[in-house]
């Protein structure tokens, strides 16, 4: 009999262990040797309104600190009554196990550059010799590290935008042929069969979108966590 693996949860709090996205109260800080204390029990737990809300790794990107702010990325756990809404789970009690990273302007900008770099191969399939997006990603990293100013960063990203537009137009021309073919096939079928196919396609698309979103969220979370860990070590917190 295999034991089901306990899901790992995260909590993003302010540098003072306060809330960043609503709520009140201060979380108990962990030490190097043990987790923080359990928060007081909450009755009548309801996601989005009552309880201590924790998230899985794939949702980290949706709950980053506001622009210009900073937060601590923490591993956390909950117990007691719970209620789930989307990726959030509210618990009657929760505690912070350990602080694993610092989410500030530097780490989040570097993580964003890493995420953008992951999709460069898609761009190169359309425009293999165009290095403007790659230069813009490097400019984002240099800006995060204080090596260049706003003007240089903005110029690099404007050039990348022009490159992306050109690539999109090239891809659109190829997509137009596929769209025309799909339209011809749909018109050839009877109305009932077309409706059935549409319903099946909608269901398949929804499932595919959810799977893609989860996969992208998990991949991005790894990048964010890695940069947040590195940043925490740099500042020595």
Helix-strand blueprint:
Layout: E1 9-13, E2 52-54, E3 71-85, E4 88-103, H1 105-118, H2 120-126, H3 132-144, H4 150-188, H5 191-235
Antiparallel strand pairs: 1-3, 2-4, 3-4
Report on the architecture of this protein.
- By secondary structure, the protein is an alpha+beta fold.
- It has five helices and four strands.
- The chain has helices at residues 105-118, 120-126, 132-144, 150-188, 191-235, and strands at 9-13, 52-54, 71-85, 88-103.
- Strands 1-3-4-2 form a four-stranded antiparallel sheet.
- Helix 1 runs antiparallel to helix 3 and helix 1 (105-118) crosses helix 5 (191-235).
- Residues 188-198 have low confidence and may be disordered.
- Quick one: how many beta strands? 4
Order of helices and strands: EEEEHHHHH
Mean of residue pLDDT values:
82
Unreliable spans: 188-198
Helicity level: 40-55%
Structural class designation: alpha+beta
Instruction: Return Rg in Å.
Output: 23 Å
Strand numbers in spatial order across the main sheet: 1-3-4-2
Sketch the major β-sheet.
Answer: 4 strands, antiparallel
**With helices defined by DSSP (H or I, 4 residues minimum), what is the helix count?**
5
In whole angstroms, the N-to-C terminal distance is: 42 Å
Question: Outline, from the CA principal axes?
Answer: elongated
Approximate strand percentage: 15-25%
Descriptive tags:
elongated, 237 residues, 16% strand, alpha+beta, 4-stranded antiparallel sheet, 50% helix
In short:
By secondary structure, the chain is α+β, with helices and mostly antiparallel strands.
């Amino acid at each position: 009999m295999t034991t089901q693996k306990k899901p790992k949860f995260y909590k993003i709090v302010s540098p003072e262990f306060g809330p960043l996205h609503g709520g009140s109260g201060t979380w108990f800080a962990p030490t190097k040797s043990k987790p923080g204390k359990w928060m007081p029990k909450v009755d009548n737990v309801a996601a989005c309104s009552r309880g201590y809300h924790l998230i899985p790794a794939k949702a980290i990107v949706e709950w980053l600190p506001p622009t210009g702010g900073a937060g601590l990325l923490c591993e956390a756990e909950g117990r007691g009554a719970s209620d789930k809404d989307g990726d959030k789970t509210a618990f009657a009690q929760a505690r912070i196990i350990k602080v694993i990273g610092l989410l500030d302007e530097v780490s989040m900008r570097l993580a964003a550059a890493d995420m953008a770099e992951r999709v460069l191969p898609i761009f190169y399939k359309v425009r293999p010799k165009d290095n403007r997006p790659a230069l813009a990603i490097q400019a984002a990293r240099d800006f995060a590290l204080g090596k260049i100013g706003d003007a240089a960063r903005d110029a690099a990203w404007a050039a990348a935008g022009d490159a992306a537009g050109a690539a999109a137009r090239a891809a659109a021309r190829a997509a137009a042929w596929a769209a025309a073919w799909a339209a011809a096939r749909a018109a050839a079928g009877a109305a009932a069969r077309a409706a059935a196919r549409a319903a099946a396609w909608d269901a398949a698309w929804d499932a595919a979108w959810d799977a893609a979103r989860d996969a992208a969220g998990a991949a991005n979370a790894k990048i964010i966590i890695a940069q947040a860990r590195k940043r925490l070590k740099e500042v020595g917190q």
